[in-house]
Amino acid sequence: MFHPFKEDAGARSGQPNKKALYLVALCFLASVFAGDKLEFWEKKDSSQWSQKECKKLLEDSPWVKQHVIASPWIETTQNQRAVAPAVVRYAVQLRSAKPVMQAVERLNQLTGQQSGPYSAGGRGFGNAPGFGQAGFYSPVTVHIICSSDNFTVDWSLFNYWTKQSADQLKDFVALKSDRGVKVPLSRYVSPYFFGTKKAKTINNEFEFIFPRRVDGSEILGPEDKFLELEFPHPNLADSARTGNMKGPYDPTRGRDDFLKGLSDFTKCSVKFKTEKMKIQGSVVY
User: Which of 39, 120, 140, 201 is least buried, going by the fewest C-beta atoms within 10 A?
Assistant: First the structure.
């Protein structure tokens, strides 16, 4: 039996359909909530980031991990009095990730700093040869800021990391994927002094640089859940043996002592979760 088409009362009267309004409202609310879940680096252009937002990205974001160690430290005195362990903090940044690079550049703009030998963008920091060239796969750059609550320990760490090289660290520093892909260190940028000739201070920042591709493929695949960095932390208590407070691994203390210091360390491991590092569905690192 043929049933004639019945015109909707709302449409006939010029009134909006209630079901349609309901669906529109749901879509609007869904978009609002989805927008709330996005971080500022996904919603705002980097030129609009505030100084506070830049610092958050460089200190507390998916591309930054804080690795804290309580280092034993013995004050060398006649009584061999033990003092409280010094706390050493490694702030590990994936500096090659685009949001992190943008935060460094934006922070330099806001603070009036220029990329130079003693700034965050200097000495090759975050800008290895070939970066940005068409067809060139930029390296994975891990930037580390090392600090301590003990000034003497700061100097000891500075002495240790300035005396390292890519060749010395290649057996102790590596980047690994969830699948077990292990990438060796290709370049190392050491800490440095900054300031004037009369008033120098230390900058305990250094970088590990790795190739992004291994055997023709990127380090991370779509199924990888994390990216792991392995690196050594020196045994600072070694300096108590001779009382030399200039640094635990000063070569002037003798070759045997120096070589022992190079191999006497704590193994550190830092993992970055790939799920947190996604932007528009792709892992950024």
Answer: 201
